[in-house]
Amino acid sequence: MQLDPHAMWALGLTVFALILFTRERIPLETSSLMVVVILAISFQVFPYQNSAGQTLRPVMFFAGFAHEALVAVCGLMVAGYALVRTGALDPIGRGLAKLWSFSPMLSVLITLLVSALLSAVVNNTPIVVLLLPIMLNVAIRTKNSPSGILMPMGLATLLGGMTTTIGTSTNLLVVSVASDMGLEEIGMFDFFMPAALAGLIGIVYLWLIAPKLLPNRTPNLENSGPRIFTAHLHVKSGSFADGKTLTEIIEKTEGAIQVSGIRRSENTFTVPLPDAKIRAGDRLLVRDTPTQLKEYERVLGATLYSKGHEVSDDNPLSEDSQHLAELVIDRGSPMIHRTLNEVHFSDVYQLVTLAIHRKGKVLENMPQGIAKTPLRLGDILLVQGSNESIEEVKNRGHFLVLDATTELPSTKYAGRAVIIMGLTILAAALGLVPIAISAVAGALAMVLTNCLKWQDIQRALSAQVILIVVASLALGTALTQTGATVWVAHEFVSITAGMSDRVIFSGLMLLMAILTNIVSNNAAAVIGTPIAISIATQLGLPPEAFVLAVLFGANMSFATPMAYQTNLLVMNAGGYTFMDFVKAGVPLTIIMLVAISLIVPMMYGF
């Protein structure tokens, strides 16, 4: 089969995009918009005409911004955020926590089942954000390792998200793209049974086997937890450190302190040689636990440095009313790729930032200081402030708060939020209105009933999700319009020639599962859906079944921490390593592949 030059370009750009999406140094939002712009410009400069003589309009690549699936995703993100913002899910969390006093083994099973059920109708990120602090606090109180429950709980939400069209944004995209290509629209619960049956097998694995595969990890989340943070110690005039050599300072701390650098001015950094003389105004870059950082502050007469000035009486660090807390930069945080200065963190939240923890990477150098260090997804801020300030941060829902001292938020609007979300889902499930309409109507109802304020909506919406959806739809349009999907399907059928239909079905699902653990699951789903329909058409098999192969495969984000945002949250909270996800996630992927490969073909008669 001859491949058109424009089709070759679309395929090449798709491969480039998938690689670009894995680059940590380039924000996903930037990569996504870059792909859309390159597509539009290239097809404007080199116009493409199909076999019917019609010219592809480059502006079509921006159509994703108005796509029904993206509208539905945004509406559901806002409605789901309202459930968290009002504390509507907190009674469930508190109930699960109480179960641990009766039967830990049974409570694990019920936690997994509840996590999966909630994720079938609510985005799994707020579910994980709700349950993480609860499970961690239970682990701290019972002096047990949280590793046996945190990752299984996170993976259970992924299983639950596979069961309905609104469970994940990936499902909505697959269903919408398939509908755009002429397939009969898949209903909200049309694939619930195969997903639920396979998911139950996965839940049993997560309950009984996965905890045994995971090493014990110490709960690192008490206020004096052993995480290593990077911070500056400001040397005050007349303090012990003023005028001493670095060697003398090290001896004063009994060899405990490790100074990575000495900052003399805004733009001057001095190498920490043993005979380097420390003077007033210097800032020592150190790395240690929260407890040790506070001890260095006391022994050396220095202060932990934050936001360009010493901590003063207006912003105390050591009063009895002050508490330490750890804030995770999660997907809904306004801090991603921004600095503390840019968002006026200390003024807005009334908290002092003492240090930053970055999983898997030592922050050896913060030349601009803590306040000017761009933050990343998964970073953890060690902050100090009053109990009221920490409580307010939790109520705002801007961060995942990993402390064991404050209560879960709850408001008088929680009941309203639950009713509105229920009506939103019910209207779409009964076919009264499309999910895009019911989701947006639900989001508006949350605002009108004071469950949300308008400023909350911008926090609920994720620029990453929006732009990766638009980029994926643009790539899907290019591949479909140029005939690249037909070519890929033809090659796939040629390679699998002679194999049984079930093996081909499983092979496609395995391909999607591999892609979703390396690149964006939305990208894998949107690109894979038209290819799956072409494969089914060439084989004379039901296209709906192969669309489900893409949907289920793209949801199997089990084997790597970067495969899905909730995996990153769980990784940071539980102290897991990359290989921990491989150990627990790969067997789960195999279980789901085998189960779905048996159930779905049986449903569609091949």
UniProtKB/TrEMBL annotation:
PROSITE patterns: RCK_C. InterPro entries: Cit_transptr-like_dom (IPR004680), DASS-Related_Transporters (IPR051679), RCK_C (IPR006037), RCK_C_sf (IPR036721). It comes from the Bacteria. The keyword Transmembrane applies. GO terms for molecular function: monoatomic cation transmembrane transporter activity. Its main location: membrane. One of its GO terms (cellular component) is plasma membrane. Keywords: Membrane, Repeat, Transmembrane, Transmembrane helix, Transport. It is found in: Membrane. It holds the Pfam family TrkA_C. GO terms for biological process: potassium ion transport. The chain crosses the membrane at residues 6-23, 30-48, 60-84, 96-118, 124-142, 154-179, 191-210, 418-445, 465-489, 510-533, 545-564, 585-604. Residues 216-302, 312-399 form the RCK C-terminal domain. It is a multi-pass membrane protein. PANTHER family: BASIC AMINO ACID ANTIPORTER YFCC-RELATED (PTHR43652). This is Potassium transporter TrkA. It comes from Arenicella chitinivorans.
